[in-house]
Every structure is written in structure tokens, then in C-alpha cells.
Amino acid sequence: MKRHLATALVTATLALPSTADAFTTRHGARVNPVNDAVFEVVPKSGSGTDIWCAAGDYAQRGLGAPWSARIYVVRGRGPSVTTNRKTAVHFTLNPSRVGVQPAQSFSLNGFKVGDSMSVQQAFGYCMGTMRFF
Q: Looking at the domain assignment, is residue 122 inside a domain?
């Protein structure tokens, strides 16, 4: 019985994202994998530009996504599932894989499911200006 419990605990622990998997953006936000298709941005501040910057930085430097790839909101602002922080936003590069329908409109700070922008646009917020490409 103890062996089965130990095996179950090890399996459950391995299924959770590790802090070693965490990525720190150039501006100090944390980005953690939620699963193999979704990542969570845990910002230092709650500004929309900081959150998009972190998503773009992680997609490009952490995942190696091309500048033209699109980043989609999977879940808007809410409690982090990978840390004890109160605010985080979930993103994906593959909306169909996680059942997200791309939105027809966009809100910079609203983080509605399906909102998206290119990796290059999101990373542009890291430079302090918005760039449309």
C-alpha cells in the first residue's frame, strides 16, 4: 500500500509544472507552462502591455516561435495555477488544440478568450512602443 501511495505522489508531482521550467522575461515577469499547449504569464504588474510583452518574449525566446506566429488568450486574468499569485493570464500558440475560437475583435487590457496578436506585435510592447507588422 505504501509503495502505491509513493508511486501516486511521484506521478502527481511529475505532472505539475516545475519551477525549473519557469521562464523569466527581460522585464521580470514569470512564464510557466501549464501543459504542453498552454503557458501562464505571471506579471510583475498588471498592465496589459507588460503581460503581452511577456507572452511575446516567451513565445519567441522560450519556445522559438517565429515572429509571424500568433499568440492567443486561453484564459483571461485570474489566479495563477502555477504560483500563489493573484493575477495571471493563459496563452497558447495553437488555439484549435485547446478549443479556443479566435476572436473577431481585440481588447488590449481585456484579455478575452480568443484575443490574439503576433509574436512580433506582443514583443513590441517590451520596447515601450506598439509596432504593427
A: yes
pLDDT at 121: 94
Could you tell me which of 80, 77, 68 has the C-alpha nearest to residue 34? 80
36/60 Cα distance (integer angstroms)? 16
For the segment 39-52, the average pLDDT, to the nearest whole number, is: 90
pTM value is 0.79
Whether residue 71 is contained in a domain is answered as yes
* Distance separating alpha carbons of residues 79 and 86, to the nearest angstrom: 5
- In this predicted structure, the answer to whether residue 114 has a pLDDT above a threshold of 90 is yes
Q: What is the mean pLDDT of residues 51-55?
A: 95
Which residues have C-beta within 8 Å of that of residue 118, sequence separation ≥ 6? 67, 68, 69, 70, 71, 133
In the chain, the number of structural domains is: 1
Question: Which letter does DSSP use for residue 48 in this model?
Answer: H
Q: Which domain holds residue 104?
A: 22-127
